[in-house]
Design a protein that fits this description.
Blueprint lengths: L1 H15 L5 H9 L26 H6 L2 E2 L8 E4 L5 E11 L2 E5 L10 E7 L4 E8 L2 E10 L9 E10 L11 E10 L6 E2 L11 E7 L3 E8 L4 E8 L7 H16 L7 E2 L5 E9 L2 E9 L8 H7 L2 H23 L7 H16 L2 E5 L2 E3 L12 E3 L3 E5 L12 H15 L2
Parallel strand pairs: 13-14
Antiparallel strand pairs: 1-2, 2-3, 3-4, 3-9, 5-6, 6-7, 7-8, 8-16, 9-15, 10-11, 11-12, 12-16, 13-15, 17-20, 18-19
EC number: 3.2.1.106
Subcellular location: Endoplasmic reticulum membrane
Pfam families: Glyco_hydro_63 (PF03200), Glyco_hydro_63N (PF16923)
Length: 415
Amino acid sequence: MIGTERTTARSRLRSSSPEPDADSLHESSDRGTEPRLPRVATPFPAPKIMDLPQFQGEHKESLYWGTYRPHLYLGIRARTPQSLMAGLMWIGVKDGSNHLRHVCRHEDELSAYGWIKHNGRDYGHQVLVDHGLILTTEFLKSNGDGSGYGGDWAVRIDVQIDKSKWNEEFGKGGQLFFYLADEGGNVLDVGREKLNIRESSLLASGSRTDIGDWQLHLKSTDDLKLHYSGFHTPHFHNLSDLVEEKLASQTRNHAQMQLSDSSDDSPNVLVFQIVGGFPFTTDIALISGTDSDNSSVEDRVNSLTGASLSNELKYKEQAFDEKIEKTFNLAEKVDSESISVGKAAVGNLLGGIGYFYGQSKIAQSRTLNHREHDAYISYWPAELYTAVPCRPIFPRGFLWDEGFHQLVIWLVFQY
């Protein structure tokens, strides 16, 4: 009886539903009329959960910036479809050859990488071990007086070597490439034609409707050399290729593996090459809302670099440790090594949260004879804010995994 009732119900729905099935879609297309999307590819006609009041205001702004590009070793963006994005590349050495690192890949054969601590909001600490090269990246957000929407953020990058694994033939210094890219096509301005952090910490500036005018600053007590290149590109999936091609061209033409200190017209991507002898540390800060009357840019740069940044990172690290202990009571259950593993598990989960925007592809019925370009239909444009199952293999949302992710995330954020 149950099966009969379900069949009958489906028949009634079929006969009364205004939505066409897949066959009628193709029939209307063949007749030259505009095909209608099936029900599965149309939004549910109701308010979205993300638009509820509790997800607006300060809560929404507090999550605006983050390490929301989990497919990269270090990538920062805002939760908006056309964001100002930042990322890190560096030169690694494998089998005696130089290789540019950027996207998380198993074939890079890094000994280890991952967020050993991350609170999912405004702090993260990551360690990457690349064949004797050891990079530590730390992320911090701040939202003080004068900041633009979403506040400011800073990244500290520390570069060391494991002398037992590093051959001096590979070089006595490291090369980092930190970049900004504007998905909205806004022009990025270089701080000055010849970059010198002893004269000015300003690397770049620009303007956006969401965060107002902004500036990017770099500070370091180490002796660093800087070069840059600016690119105008419609795509951002191939930034590694742009840098590799520029370095190859410079090496062929000038016998130097350094960026050109020049730019395309109206660049929407700026890449900064940071060269320093081992070990070295650099602090990079993005300051938003610099056009406001009380922006206090210099004070905010100082608060996000140097000793002030060190103190704030230490405070955030301690707060993370306390939250993990309060949530899971690990000290009563396991040894210190297991506690470190637990913190890294939570840190990697929260550090793997990403923001995505686009249209999902939905497969059409296999029983129909479709042309190749009709093998799928596209969902409506939508945002997705989610943890990811695996940064190098599956750096995107997956509903099955997200259910398990939320069991842990809920525990962490209930305190």
